[in-house]
Specification:
- The structure holds two protein chains of two kinds.
- Chain A is α/β, with parallel strands linked by helices.
- Chain A is 30% helix and 24% strand.
- Chain A is built from ten helices and twelve strands.
- In chain A, helix 7 links the parallel strand 7 and strand 8.
- In chain A, helix 4 runs parallel beside helix 6 and helix 5 packs across helix 6.
- The radius of gyration of chain A is 21 Å and the shape is globular.
- Chain B starts with 6 loop residues before the first strand and ends with a helix.
- Chain B is built from eleven helices and twelve strands.
- The chains are: A alpha/beta, B alpha/beta.
- At the A-B interface, helix 6, helix 7, helix 8, helix 9 and helix 10 of A face helix 6, helix 7, helix 8, helix 9 and helix 10 of B.
Chain lengths: 338, 347
């Protein structure tokens, strides 16, 4: 294990200016059972995940439910405590920081949640929601804070007079804009966007995607964009990380991942997405069965039980993430496929 | 898909209204469409478009009060070959149709199965009711149905409870239940929205195979245009409680004649359109504004406030649903302009 993890770390893409360097991140949730509530097992939600994000880069984190993508996103921000590994932010390992020290870093790292209905406190006005983080970090004290809130609302396509209203007075798309304004309130360098458009109507999704893209470019934000929809991700991300059952399967620049996937899981995921063109009839790769339980994942490669290229060795070897072409990494032992 | 051209279900001028404290919500306001035998009709729309209320009206599952079918007819020809108007049927007659001639699968397979009964019991219930089979035979049918929808070890699974199964498995159980009495019409209300894409691909694949086997018609309600392209023969696009466009699936995607449909098609990211490294990223063409409030729809065309092609006449009266040729219908006063523009591009 130690040998492979060291190799994994070395083989990660080295961009000129790395903002976030995630090394062998691990999040196990203990399962307790029996009379004494002893730990009888672990849900390995995130297992040995390593990647880097360059400053100003937009990276997609894609996977199905149970892949660990949301857990990874939250563990990076320490919204849940990782059980292993390091998260280097600007070179500092934030997993070692105390709560008080962490507070200063939280100013730099914010999150946008999936559900615009559950993530805004219904009893707070929009100005309270957006101003709360500024208050905690003592930014823009006094009258300046109201001006700043007004400015943020305009930035996300709402009007300053909206600040006195409550969340229930807004539509889903507008609420997501409030969530974005809240994340931007403390001038963060890094944002985790956890499925920010999945809960929105189709005609509203494009508005929010465009807004995120504009803000990212204008403010030079670094973004980890978590999603299950590869089509949205490839549109706005520079690179994409594909996860399955807690592990990274493939990392590649967006276009390369879509046109030339190197991992059988990515191939199947791309093939499964329905194409909005009725004249296209293609042979689809239908994956058999369901994603296995993360309590007892398959030995060797976690994807082998559903992989059409699996060979005997796949059950014995945990494939390391290795670079197969510049900037393109895959965790698969076979080079004679794809 | 078999096109026998024989109409199975004809919805004419359906109006389903809900009375609320704030006023009457015209969820479905004069909807007309039909489904032929063996055909898949997709109804596309966003939240508040009235697509789900339309399907619940066909099943007569509108909670009354507050809801009510106030006008229109729903003509359906059941397995007995007799055409009936579902709006006028007694509750007892309706019960004979539900689950037998028309069945329905829902978006959330977790909440639409009863957690305290085994899946076998739940499938057998409809079989005993509609086919008069005894419990033992009905459980046999349940096992066969589970095998039919591709559940491994059906003899064992038939005695399991919903919580013992994954989301995709549960949706298969729902489908097994819906098909157990060989219905003429299957209503599928967002059946894959809660599922992962690889599981969605499995379920869509299964639905296509079963349709070919059983020969039923499918009313497929969805907001996912990718799923529409894959499953539908014909498409109905709804907005603000009305049908705004209807036509053959290829026509709808290649030559849309309503600005809302055009906007939807432009606003979705298409697979394989990622930018080259170092090149500027693409931009989606978003539809501005919000889905209209059903309590205060615009006086004319419901889409007018968001429409980039709107002219003053658009807000004067609700446009009629006009035939643009070959049964391709559009509720837009400017459809001729779009047809002409497209002809000029192709010419």
């Amino acid at each position: 294990m130690t040998a492979t993890t060291a190799q994994t770390r070395r083989s990660m893409p080295a961009t000129g200016d790395t903002l976030l360097d995630v090394q062998n991140l691990e999040k196990y949730f203990p399962i307790r059972g029996g009379l004494l509530s002893r730990v009888v097992g672990n849900v390995k939600a995130v297992n040995d995940v390593s990647f880097k994000i360059g400053r100003g880069e937009v990276v997609g984190l894609v996977g199905e439910s149970g892949s660990g993508k949301t857990t990874a996103g939250r563990a990076i921000l320490r919204l849940i405590e990782p059980t292993g590994g390091q998260v280097l932010f600007n070179g500092t390992d934030i997993t070692k920081l105390s709560k008080g020290q962490m507070r200063d870093y939280r100013r730099e790292m914010q999150i946008i949640f999936q559900d615009p209905f559950a993530s805004l406190n219904p009893r707070m006005t929009v100005s309270d929601i957006i101003g709360e983080a500024m208050q905690i970090h003592n930014l823009h004290p006094g009258k300046g804070r109201i001006d700043r809130i007004a400015e943020l609302l305009q930035k996300v396509g709402l009007r300053p007079e909206h600040m006195r209203r409550y969340p229930h007075e807004f539509s889903g798309g507008q609420r997501q804009r409030i969530g974005i304004a809240r994340a931007l309130a403390v001038d963060p360098a890094f944002i985790v966007a956890d499925e920010p458009v999945s809960a929105l109507d189709v005609s509203i999704q494009a508005q929010v995607v465009n807004l995120l893209q504009d803000l990212q470019e204008e403010l030079g934000l670094t973004v980890l964009f978590i999603a299950h929809d590869l089509a949205v991700v490839e549109y706005i991300c520079d690179r994409i990380i594909v996860m399955y059952l807690g592990r990274v399967m493939e990392i590649a620049p967006s276009r390369q991942l879509n046109t030339n996937p190197k991992h059988p899981y990515t191939e199947a995921l791309l093939s499964a997405a329905p194409v909005p063109d009725p004249t296209v009839k293609r042979q689809r790769i239908i994956l058999e069965g369901d994603i296995p339980s993360p309590i007892n994942p398959p030995s060797g490669c976690v994807f082998r039980t559903r992989c059409r290229y699996a060979i005997a060795d796949c059950a014995n070897i945990v494939p390391e993430l290795r670079e197969v072409s510049p900037g393109h990494f895959k965790a698969c032992i076979r080079d004679d496929i794809l | 898909m078999t096109h026998q051209g024989e109409v199975l279900l004809a919805v004419n001028g359906l109006k389903t209204y809900f009375s609320t404290d704030d006023g009457v919500v015209k969820s479905v306001d004069g909807v007309t469409f039909h489904i032929n035998k063996g055909e898949t009709l997709a109804v596309v729309g966003e939240s508040g478009s009235g697509k789900s209320v339309t399907s619940l009206s066909v099943m007569r599952l509108i909670p009354t009060p507050p809801g009510k079918i106030v006008e229109g007819e729903i003509l359906f020809t059941g397995k007995d070959g007799v055409q009936k108007d579902i709006v006028k049927l007694s509750e007892a007659d309706m019960r004979k149709i539900r689950g037998n001639d028309i069945s329905m699968i829902f978006q959330e397979p977790m909440t639409s199965l009863n957690p305290v009964y085994t899946v076998g019991d739940q499938i057998a219930e409809a079989v005993m009711l509609h086919q008069g089979k005894n419990k033992k035979d009905a459980m046999g049918v349940a096992t066969d149905m589970l095998r039919f929808v591709g559940i491994p070890a059906p003899e064992k699974r038939v005695n399991e409870y919903p919580h013992q199964m994954s989301g995709g498995m549960r949706q298969r159980v729902m489908i097994a239940m819906a098909l157990s009495c060989k219905p003429a019409l299957l209503i599928a209300d967002e059946p894959t929205t809660a599922l992962d894409v690889t599981i969605q691909a499995q379920i869509l694949d299964l639905m296509r195979k079963l349709q070919a086997d059983v020969g039923m018609s499918i009313l497929f309600i969805t907001h996912n245009l990718g799923v529409v392209a894959e499953m539908a023969d014909r498409v109905v696009v709804m907005y603000g409680g009305r049908v705004v466009e209807e036509g053959d699936v290829v026509e709808i995607f290649k030559a849309p004649r309503h600005p809302y449909t055009m906007g939807l098609l432009n606003s979705i990211p298409r697979p394989g359109e990622a930018h080259e490294p170092g090149q500027p990223k693409g931009r989606l063409e978003a539809i501005p504004g919000n889905v209209p409030n059903p309590l205060s729809l615009p006086p004319g065309c419901a889409f007018e406030p968001r429409c980039k092609f709107a002219v003053p006449d658009c807000s004067k009266a609700v446009p009629a649903l006009e035939d643009t040729g070959h049964g391709h219908m559009s509720r837009c006063i400017r459809w001729r302009d779009f047809a002409q523009a497209q002809n000029e591009v192709t010419a």
